[in-house]
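Ticket #4471: complex job returned nothing on first submit. Input attached below:
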Amino acid sequence: MGRGRQRGRSQRKHFKESRENVWKRPKSDAPDKPTWEPFLTDNPNFEEYYKEQGIVKAEEWDLFMEILRKPLPAAFRVNSNSQFCDEIISILENDFVKSLQAEAIEGGELEAIKPLPWYPKNLAWHSNFSRKEIRKNKILERFHEFLKLENEVGNMTRQEAVSMVPPLFLDVHPDHFVLDMCAAPGSKTFQLLEIIHGASEPGTLPNGMVVANDVDFQRSNLLIHQTKRMCTANLIVTNHEGQQFPGCRLKGLSEDMPINQLSFDRVLCDVPCSGDGTLRKAPDIWRKWNSGMGNGLHSLQVILAMRGLSLLKVGGKMIYSTCSMNPVEDEAVVAEILRRCGDSVELVDVSDKLPELIRRPGLKTWKVRDKGGWFTSYKDVPQNRRGGVIVSMFPSGKNLKDSTETTQENENGGVQDECKETENSVVDAIPDEPVVEVSDLPLERCMRIVPHDQNTGAFFIAVLHKVSPLPEFQEKPNPRKHSSKKNADSTEKSPAEEAVVSANTEPVEEEDANNEKDDDSLEPEKQTTQGETTITEEKEANPPSQAGGKRKVPMQGRWKGFDPVVFLKEETLIDSIKEFYGIKDESFPLKTPKDVQFPFTTTTMIIFHHPFTSSLQESFQSS
Ligand SMILES: C[S@@+](CC[C@H](N)C(=O)[O-])C[C@H]1O[C@@H](n2cnc3c(N)ncnc32)[C@H](O)[C@@H]1O
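Support reply: We reran it on our side without changes. The output follows.
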């Protein structure tokens, strides 16, 4: 057994043990025994911040906090492409639900697993059992084993309920080219692949494809691990800074077809964020949270979204989403990209879609906080705070004081006149009162899901439609301006802000947390082939810089992560697989030809796991 695998096991054990103990209270009969304290579920800064932002109505506040402090119910999805999909739903409905209901009636306590009412075709479910209950109850134990096994083979996926929402609003079709810009650990990529494969006949490949990108190569391992359960040939995984994602060229299928610039029908921009929507699942965020976390990510989020829009086809749609409730990471980012894009991008009203999903309209007004205090308008931000607090964080996106001064110099119009001039904002100002900026962009079309709406985590989603090419200067990434390392807007980091590095990523489901292997040797290729289409990078992206704090840069050169191709070397193992699948030598030669290197044969074995064996077999044999 390799060193990497051993280390992985012990990491997993340690991880599990620490997770088990998170909610455990010290036993009164063993006071001297060292035990884990439960995580604090208090943070005065958090409470003050969200009260001030009016994230929920005053009368909802106590319920909001109460639910935030409760552990999150587990949620999972049945893979709609699995050949066992109907069977699995039937087992859930007729076996587990009924047995649990019967037990609940007898014992009066257990709550049965339930489908999520807003997810189509009863494909997504949630259950609300503690680990203790699982250990004590035979049906739950059996259910847990079932879930683990089906998850492993790709028939089911554990995924936080609200994280399932963005792909549902993206309106993906099987022939779409989709870019998932910040994709790891890949739960939404998996959903996108399900849609791409949705209509294809067994043995055929759909025309669409998903390019799943993440800057973090270690998290990309999880992405590969997650998506390989789909057995798809319609996925490319890339390791770029999303804001520098390179322009790609599609090589024509025939000589008379010109080379085309690759643009995407759909883009999912599920950005790194402060992650306070995942507090119920990752309670350590209670301790780390501070308002600087959101401020420090705002600029990166804007440039990621802008690059997504520039890679989007005219007529295409993009989702901007975060698992944060913070308006500086949510509405402020959407407002800024709408301002930058002018009439070329619209915020889509999706209020009639998925009516059973409870959500709230986006905010029109918010404030910005940093160590210096609260600011209602950029004009109030002192010079020495302007490194960390920038103008696009405010509802107007403008430095109203500067404009007002100009207006006042010309005539006595004051702020009200400025208000007329400001296309995208309304400003309520009474002399000597703080200015309250209210965006008049249609931000109510964004949606925010808060935990007490339907016992979930929190999420923010905006659907954008590119109606015409972006203003020319917004179409291309500007390496100088857009490199996150050099981004002056987000340089000021408080010590607690550094904590964002661990909080800004959607937490990985426990089962996914152990996929490391450290002795792999697959060279990443500059050219990737998908079907007959060759995708060539137009240019090398700039050297990767640090995104969103002290993020590790992706490994260049040798692939050091999880190897998606397993090399089988033992003849006996190969023979047993041949026997199991009934593979005949003449139809699919597996023996190593004398003049061919061994990996040729072993790669063939991997392709054999692929459901589209016949078509791949043909192209493989002819190559
Ligand atoms: C919220 S998580 C994405 C969750 C993922 N969409 C899913 O559903 O499984 C954000 C991801 O963005 C990645 N990330 C951070 N900075 C990035 C950048 N500049 N470009 C691309 N990805 C980035 C992180 O590594 C992280 O995996």
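Residues 571-622 form one domain. Closing as resolved unless it happens again.
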